[in-house]
Every structure is written in structure tokens, then in C-alpha cells.
Amino acid sequence: MNTTAEIESDSQAQTIRRLSRWVTIATAALLMVTWKLWTPQTIFPQIPFLELLTGTPGWVDWVLLFGVVGALVVTLFSPPPDRFGRLAMGVFAVCLTGLISLDQHRLQPWAWQFLLIAWLLITVPNKSGLHWCRWLTVSIYAWSAVSKLNYSFLHEHANLFLGVIADWTGTKLADWPDTVQMLAAWVFPLGELLVALLLILWPHRRIGLWASWLMHGTLIALVGPFGLQHEWGVLLWNVFFIGQNALLYPRRTGDAFGHQFIKELRPREFVASIPIVTALVLPLTSLRGWFDEWPSWAVYTGRAEQVRVEIREDVRESIPKDLPISDASTGDTLDFQPWRSVNLGRWSLETLETPIYPQSRFRLAVAAAISERLPDEFGIRVTVRSATDRKSGARWTETYRGREAIEQLLDRFWLNTQARRIWSP
């Protein structure tokens, strides 16, 4: 007869297998709906994290992508904690890291989360691994909520969601009293914080699970086909959370959350946990702009830096044909030529079917890549708007004209801002 410890161990191993299969299925689905992003495409500039990678040929992307797909297939049929499954998950993590290093645009929030989960399944595929997965999930909810506690979200960006709700109820958001609008806006960050808190408190974890399902179901409705009609990647990521939480927070679980298992960590597991602990803490630095928004789980905040790119009318024939340019002049006729606004966000959505990476570092690098194709280095200018002040929503604004001015602006960043040579003319 099996002992209680053996039964619990078998149950944990089964949960790990199910979780790894669910991550595999979700990764495959998200790769399919954003497949252009992961290929060596030349329709949108690719900005590696390191300058030494700018000369990487396109076939390397195909090799890494093949490695990711192959590892997913193996993991689906032989998931961790099996030795062969852990090896396949390791190949997946290495190849996905390689793809991301070749293009900062690929550091999607879901890709970052799956890399962290893969690390746990490789290094600590046992009771400790499940605990760390729970902590990771709670941190995503908590940091996402904190990122929305700012003026821009509460007064402006939340109106995107509230407008959909108003349409569902047959009303107009403009007709809602200001107090009602503000209270409704606060529901989004406070709801995420409540879910995180309930998932931490063991007696209320089941309530937290149901609350998380309600939250993700609501988000799917708001951004789905009957709401804001956002990309499939956003919808699938929310679907992943629904399945993941069902696995991580089963109906019967009596283990304590977060303190007892840390005392029981073996030395190897303690060392393996350092990257996860780092990932849990790093979002704190994003509040000061020292760490990127997406790996800090700051989504839909409305606070991010903004970069406006404008092209002079007489050089627009030299830029990519699919680049979305406004037909309306900005009203400035410097050099006796009108300027046209370029929508980088729409360009990313139309060509790669994924939102553009939010950091100004990346967007300025894309602007610099566009400038390489212009016959006149002064045919482009960018206007940089800082992240909003959390209390007032204020931004500072600066405009830079010409390729050299943009490149000088890019020199302040530590990470690479040069496009891969497969893009260069």
C-alpha cells in the first residue's frame, strides 16, 4: 500500500506533466497566431538585444524555431518530470531564448512567462516547482495591478474597457457620472490585487481560483470579437491562465503557501530558484523606468513612453510600401514640405499581428532603421513623450530631427538599438 507521501508525490508529478503539456499547447497556439514574428522576416525591423547579433543570418532563426517546435512535440508526449521530457524542455528554453535575443520584439509577456515556467520544470520539477509557479502567477497579477495604479490608466486607458461595457448596456460612457467612471476604473487594478491576495491565502484559495476565472473571462469578452477586437495572442494568453490556474490550485490542497517549502529547499533547488526570485523582484525597478514594461507584467497601463515618427513628404517613396502613413499633413511645412505621421503600432499589428514592444528604446531603434532607407537624413523626425507621471499624468516632450540626432539619442541606452543587417538596404 502506498504511503501518504508517495501518493502526494505521484499527484505532484501528474500535475507537473499536465502543466507542461498545457504550456506546450499554449506555446504552439501562440506561435501559430504570431508566426511572422518568429521568422527572419524583413517587413519590420528586428532589433537584437546585443549588437554582436545584428549580423546573424536569417537561417539561424529557422534552426531555432525548428528546435522550439521539435521540443514542444517531444514534451507533449514525454513531459517533465521524466528525464527525456526535461531535456526537451531545456532545448525549448534555449531555442526560445535564442529567438528572443535576436529580436526584442519577441519578448512578449507570454513568452517571458513560459520561459520562467520552463526553467522551473527543468530545474525543480517537484513540489517546490509547483510552489514557485504559484508565486509567479501571483506576482503577475500583483505587478499588473500595481502598474495600473496611475493617472493615465484610471482617467484615460480604463475608458477603453468601460466604453465596451457601456455599449453592452446600451448606454454611452460620456453619460456616466464622473464618480461612477472613476469607481469603475478602480475595479480593474483592485480586482487583480484581490485575486492575487486570495490565491496567497490558503483558506480562500478556491475563491481566488474562481475569481481569476471570472477576471480572465471578463477580459476575453472585453478584448475579444464582441469588444475591442484585439489580436488572438491576447485572447489565448488569457485562456492559458484559466487552464493553468485550474492545475496549480486544485480543489484539495493542504500545503502551506510560500514559507514552509522555502525552508525545505535543497541546496541545488535553492540555487535553481535564484532566477525566479530575480524575475519576481525585477518589476519593482520598472516603476522607475529601469526595467522593461512587458517582462514587468505592465500591460494596458496607458503610462508607457510614446514615440511619434514623422516622414517628410518628398522622401515617402523611399520607405517600405506597407508602412502606414497618415494622409493628413501635420501642419508643419518646414523646408516647404509637409510632414506625414507614421503609426508604428499599426505597422506592427498589420505586418506581424502583434502589438509593438512598448519601450521607447525599441521604437526609436525602429525609427532609426527606417531612416536608413531615406535618401535624405533630415527626412525624418521623432517626438519622444516620456512615461506619464503617476499622480498627474503629465509628460515631457522632445523632438529630434534627422538620422544623426536619432542615433545620438539612442547612444544613451545600454542595450542594442541597431537593426539586424537582413533589414538594411
Report what the structure shows.
The protein has helices spanning 4-33, 59-77, 83-101, 109-123, 127-147, 151-168, 178-200, 205-223, 232-248, 260-263, 267-272, 274-281, 283-286, 344-352, 360-371, 403-410; strands at residues 306-312, 325-329, 339-342, 380-385, 397-401. It is α+β, with helices and mostly antiparallel strands. It has two domains: 4-296; 306-410, no CATH class. It has a five-stranded antiparallel beta sheet with strand order 2-3-1-4-5, with helices on one face. The chain starts with a helix and ends in a 15-residue tail after the last helix. The relative contact order is 0.13.
Features of the shown structure:
globular, alpha+beta, 5 strands, five-stranded antiparallel β-sheet, 16 helices, 425 residues
Number of strands: 5
Number of H/I helices = 16
Report the principal-axis shape.
Answer: globular
Task: Extract low-pLDDT stretches.
Answer: none
Helix/strand class? alpha+beta
> Which radius of gyration do the C-alpha atoms yield?
23 Å
- The fraction of residues assigned to DSSP E strands is 5-15%
Number of domains: 2
Give the ordered list of helices and strands. Answer: HHHHHHHHHHHHHEEEHHEEH
Mean pLDDT over all positions = 88
- Biggest sheet, strands in spatial order? 2-3-1-4-5
Taking the alpha carbons of the first and last residues, their distance comes to 70 Å
